[in-house]
Amino acid sequence: VRGANALWHMDGNEKLRPWGFYRSATVEALFLHAVSIYGWPSRMRGDFGKENNGVERRMIARWGEAHRSYIRGRSTQNIRMERNWRDVRKDTLEFFREIFMYLVEINLLDMENPIHRVCLFVVFQPRIQKSLDETITSWNLHKVRTAGNKSLNAIFQLSREKAINRGYWTGDPGDPLSTASDPHYGQDPEAPLPPADELQTDPTAADYTEYPDVAAEREAGVVINDDDEVSECREILSGMDFLSDDGNWGMDLYCTAVMRITEHFMG
């Protein structure tokens, strides 16, 4: 590709979805946050997941459909992201997934129980975010051997400076349409494939149906926490420090939260 912001790859990770850590609307919000930091990408490549619909609309509104601004395909065509997911799984997601599975195993977590479900989110969301932030920092600072041992941050900044000097950074930083029209544009044939379990549920076409409300999302099998529930729970537990070290990886904090919320509503 031409350089920084010519093409972004995106993908949602749903490893923690069964425990309520999932909001399709969050993807669009995260995209806009990234744009505020790095600027608009010329094009994006993503899969057919419904969570990508909002980003696709934003990209088309910015550049138009003829620009091929959002390139959709199956996950096997977006496998460059798998390089990132391997580290995210290893450094963050698997650790918390095992904690949640253990809580279920010892009957301290029932995802059908709204108090358990919301307390799990309120207690562990900041802990997961802290771990993800550390992974992001480590990833962006790691040196790439094939790029002269430059960090990813350095590679981006050098490419950005080049675009500024040549006068196209504030316009379209991407490749010509003739290049971007190649079906294999932005693909990496040497990147690892997604896990087999993800390929089994990988959508083969875009789905633009919208959920009218949270109840409809739950009816469709999307375990999701209502914003009002989360806000109320946080207010009741406002005196707790969810990032504190309880000596048990957050599980004692979770149990304390469940007891306090139960007492609040049942007492």
UniProtKB/TrEMBL annotation:
Matches recorded under InterPro entries: Integrase_dom_put (IPR058913)
Coiled-coil residue windows: none
Region (Disordered): 169-203
Top-level lineage group: Eukaryota
Pfam family, one: rva_4
Membrane-spanning ranges: none
Protein name according to UniProt: Integrase core domain-containing protein
Native organism: Favolaschia claudopus
